[in-house]
Amino acid sequence: xxxxxxxxxxxxxxxxxxxxxxxxxxxxxxxxxxxxxxxxxxxxxxxxxxxxxxxxxxxxxxxxxxxxxxxxxxxxxxxxxxxxxxxx
Length: 88
Known about the structure:
mainly alpha; 3 helices; 9% strand
């Protein structure tokens, strides 16, 4: 049975992830708030970032860059939408 959640990325009820993909508190937050579709969108974006910036995921500094980009992609985008709605 597919798990339904309110996706903070798309701002609607959608199918959730099947299991916690990312470790720690952020992983729980992603599992509870990010849909499967939004996560797949992030995976595509992550690949683009890794290739464009020529990151090596074996290096801690490159992992930190992806971590920051992931948070920005999954959560900051929704904050921009809130600001737009308030201006209307």
